[in-house]
Specification:
The protein is of the alpha+beta class. The protein folds into three domains: about 210 residues, no CATH class; about 110 residues, Immunoglobulins (Immunoglobulin-like, Sandwich); about 180 residues, no CATH class. It is built from ten helices and 25 strands. The strands form four sheets. The protein has an eight-stranded antiparallel beta barrel. Helix 7 packs across helix 10. About 45% of the residues are buried.
């Protein structure tokens, strides 16, 4: 069995200035979280969970009751724990300590990568934590069924170098008959695994027995500093929250201390927002757990008092957020892109001639205003200002939809003599595709496209795919690759300087204003692909 702190000592602790959960717990335990080198096969990577708050559920000692198993499958990255519970202590409002649990189990299923870092829950199961069984109360009544469910937010592990190892977990409570007894909405779990084959290596399977302690986690009381941010669908992958881009709810974001140790976690609300508040002065980081159904996007360093503070050089992390006592750090955002869908199909685009006729022109005028600014922000080398100080003659920043419509007609009507070497319609084919991406996305343009026979969805043709055939070099991919339409546009934009397609093959924002034989070949290849996009998807 585990020893608990006395109620008097808990109250004394709560009177002081508490920091974040893990800091507080480890101060009580008389230790400081730290990184340590491997020594005598010991690996210290526990997150420091100490469930000091009641109610507390404890298990049978292995060998004296039901299931007590811990196992890790390296092929699926799934860590599973199934342990029988025996007792619930100090259950507030339901009787005295030592309530009896029978036929009760705690079932944990999470995913941990090869480095021992938390990936998330098991997507094939409804809960990451589930406590089932029967709880007998002091008055001889009982509670039966699902007592607690939760979603994993933090995980730690410690290889002892022997055969008894330890793991700890933090779960966000999602339901169960006892959920109301966890006022902060979080539960901590300490797992001690005897007869363990764990050596600190998550590249191989391991297992062992299990003895658990499950308890509530107190809400921290700390300083006045805070960190805030957003997780959103950054459709055009520019790192800015643009009109029509959607928030992503339910994404786990973890708070890191200066050493990169997880000390708190939360999930985004229905506006995609997350916050960590009541933080002491110090250096922090935030880390996003990649949400299912999205392609990884950009991490955006936010600001403190109007100045950028932090480092986003590590994927899905923003570190080096240095807070003074009363600082408010804002806009530490994580962008995600929608996954690619099926191949381009009829109704998703239109032939180049459509956009210059009266119907296409009318459609451009009918959609939500802002097409010019969206094109400039999404494809700045093609239609915006790339920031190098030179003027782009095709800059559409601030242009109305009517001006974009006129610009398209000019590009479409250009002859070979009016263009750099290459296909005369290359510019208009690329622009036609870019316009279709905007018009078929209901979040950007609304539903006007439906009246003209176009297929309009949440992501539009931007997430549809096209096979580049033997034209892969024009898009920086292998021949025969399938790429999303928006990625095809991004590729051309990266090779463009001041609106001249394929004048910047080394992508250093420096072109010579002329098209050589290699660039000409790539312009021809790109024209083949964009012509195919507009024909295959044409209405």
């Amino acid at each position: 069995m585990f020893n608990y702190l006395s109620r008097k000592r808990r109250i004394k602790l709560q009177k002081g200035r508490r920091r974040t959960d893990a800091m507080q717990y480890n101060r009580v335990l008389g230790r400081t979280l730290r990184h340590e080198t491997l020594e005598d096969r010991r690996m210290l990577a526990l997150i420091g969970v100490a469930p000091l708050e009641l109610p507390v559920m404890s298990s049978n000692i292995p060998g004296t009751g039901g299931p007590t198993t811990t196992s890790y499958d390296s092929s699926t990255n799934i860590l599973s724990v199934l342990v029988e519970l025996a007792e619930m202590d100090f259950l507030p409002g339901l009787g005295e300590e030592g309530q009896y649990l029978t036929g009760s189990t705690v079932d944990i299923n999470i995913r941990v990568d090869e480095s021992g870092n938390l990936i998330g829950g098991n997507p094939s199961l409804s809960f990451d934590l589930e406590v089932q069984g029967v709880l007998f109360l002091a008055d001889s009544s009982f509670i039966a069924g699902t007592m607690l469910t939760g979603e994993i937010v933090a995980f730690g592990h410690e290889d002892s170098g022997g055969t008894t190892d330890q793991y700890d977990f933090v779960f966000s409570i999602t339901g169960g008959q006892l959920a109301g007894l966890y006022p902060n909405g979080q539960a901590g779990v300490i797992l001690t695994s005897a007869d363990s084959t764990f050596t600190g290596d998550f590249n191989v399977d391991f297992g062992g027995k299990g003895e658990v302690l499950v308890g509530a986690i107190a809400a921290p009381v700390g300083g006045n500093a805070s960190i805030h941010g957003l997780v959103w669908e950054d459709f055009n992958n520019d790192g800015f929250v643009n009109f029509g881009e959607k928030a992503i709810e339910g994404v786990t974001v973890q708070l890191l201390d200066e050493d990169g140790i997880v000390i708190d976690a939360t999930t985004t609300d229905d506006q995609g927002m997350y916050s960590f508040v009541e933080l002491d002065a110090g250096t922090y980081g935030v880390m996003e757990l990649q949400p299912v159904g999205f392609v990884d996007g950009l991490e955006v360093v936010g600001e403190i008092d109007g100045s950028p503070v932090g480092d986003n050089s590590i994927n899905d992390k923003i570190t080096g957020i240095v807070l003074d006592a009363d600082d408010t750090a804002v806009n530490y955002n994580f962008g995600e892109r929608p996954e690619a869908g099926g191949t381009v199909s009829p109704g998703q685009t239109a032939a180049g001639g459509f956009w210059q006729n009266k119907h296409g022109q009318e459609l451009i005028l009918s959609v939500n205003e802002g097409l010019g600014d969206w094109l400039a922000a999404t494809l700045p080398n093609l239609y915006g200002n790339d920031g190098d100080g030179d003027v782009n003659p095709f800059d559409l920043t601030g242009k109305t939809n009517a001006e974009v419509a006129d610009f398209y007609k000019i590009e479409f009507k250009k002859k070979n003599k009016d263009q750099p070497p290459g296909p005369a319609k290359l510019n208009s084919q690329v622009l036609a595709t870019a316009i279709a991406v905007y018009v078929t996305n209901s979040n950007l343009a609304g539903l006007a496209g439906l009246d003209f026979g176009l297929s309009v969805t949440d992501t539009g043709v931007g997430t549809a795919t096209i096979n580049v055939g033997d034209n892969g070099e024009a898009f920086g991919v292998a021949d025969g690759a399938d790429i999303a339409i928006l990625d095809a546009l991004f590729a051309v934009n990266s090779f463009t300087q001041e609106g001249l397609l394929y004048d910047d093959l080394d992508m250093d924002l420096v072109g010579d204003g002329a098209i050589d034989s290699i660039e000409l070949a790539l312009r021809i290849a790109a024209n083949d692909v964009f012509s195919m996009i507009n024909e295959d998807g044409g209405i």
